[in-house]
Amino acid sequence: MRVLVTGAAGFIGSHVADALSARGHETVLVDNLLPKAHGGQADFDGVVGDVRDPALLADLLAGVDVVCHEAAMVGHGVSPADAPEYVLHNDFGTAVLLSAMHGAGVRRLVLASSMVVYGEGRYECPAHGVVQPGARRQSDVDNGRYDPPCPVCGAPLSPGLVPEDAPMDPRSTYAATKAAQEFLAAAWARQTGGGVWALRYHNVYGPRMPRDTPYAGVASLFRSALERGEAPTVLEDGDQRRDFVHVTDVAVANVLAAVTATRTGALVPVNICSGTPHTVGELASELAKACDGPAPKVVGGTRPGDVRHVVADPGAAREKLGFRAKTSFEQGIAEFATAPLRAPASRV
């Protein structure tokens, strides 16, 4: 099978390319080496180009069976001033790719989506059942009340596993662009008879993460601090729950999606996760121990757009793709403590 991998020089994209090649698939690799993701790094055995270039895509898509679309600006970002770049790279880039796929007759897409499309995870109120809390009030955060209350009665909520049919509620620019990518791809599928797997990655970590950048994930930020001999800084009280999934497992999920047909004319979302939640505080503590570094500092506060708990239901990925993560939290963190990271990224 011939697979076009966009963003193939990136953290996840490079692992996807490796996993496909290891299983005997022919890969076509493209990346524009965006400085925010790659800094000065240019060690890439593929085509240096932009998915917003339709002429380039027409050449790359020749003979391709399926596209794994990893190219994107990722992470929380710096401020809303990042919005035009996020939209240009993530949404406009996806629109150009989908148009080029239509022209080339390629009807299968594996889209790198994200858990951020959910906003907050799944919550249940004893009186009102499953509810969708609104944004947390700054006064609550300032007073150390981090868990969102029931939006109806104000009672404490119980967090649970978020399924794929949960409503979208993006809380950041990045999250909004990932939701828009799904909508664009779903419209393309209906119009062309194509099929899309939208892999909603949860907190991915592992070798080749970028370091020292506001566009990186929390695991990389903690690891970067420890490399500098500093304590990882944990916001809120450290009890916010996430699902940390190793990048090699995410790569396998992409391979399974690439070789598994989905129903015609549809986008099918699936959570890609470990199935075992941990807190951000646990991540910081385990990583500090593994790096023999200083204990984390819990400092309170939160970033605009941050959510409290997002923990995934892994059932659909097991049922539809046969995907189960194999790397345990303990094994993955021990490896990540010494795994190579990418060079510091530029912010210009």
Explain the overall architecture.
This protein is of the alpha/beta class and 348 residues long. Helices cover 34% and strands 19% of the residues. It has 11 helices and 17 strands. It has helices spanning 11-22, 35-38, 54-60, 83-104, 138-142, 173-192, 218-227, 247-259, 280-290, 315-321, 329-336, and strands spanning 2-6, 26-31, 47-48, 66-69, 108-114, 122-125, 129-131, 158-162, 195-201, 203-205, 233-234, 241-242, 244-246, 266-272, 278-279, 297-298, 311-312. The strands form 5 sheets. The chain has a 7-stranded parallel β-sheet with strand order 3-2-1-4-5-9-14, sandwiched between helices. The chain has a 4-stranded mixed β-sheet with strand order 7-6-8-17, with no helix packed on it. Helix 1 crosses helix 8, helix 4 (83-104) runs parallel beside helix 6 and helix 7 (218-227) packs parallel to helix 9 (280-290). The protein starts with a strand and ends in a 12-residue tail after the last helix. The mean pLDDT is 93.
Mean pLDDT: 93
Largest sheet: 7 strands, parallel
Based on Cα principal axes, name the global outline: globular
Radius of gyration: 20 Å
Low-confidence spans: none
Straight-line N-to-C gap: 38 Å
The portion of residues assigned to helices is 25-40%
Order of neighbouring strands in the sheet with most strands: 3-2-1-4-5-9-14
Derived structural class: alpha/beta
Strand percentage, roughly? 15-25%
Task: Give the SSE string.
Answer: EHEHEHEHEEEHEHEEHEEEHEEHEEHH
Number of strands: 17
Q: Please tally the helical runs, counting DSSP H or I stretches of 4 or more residues.
A: 11
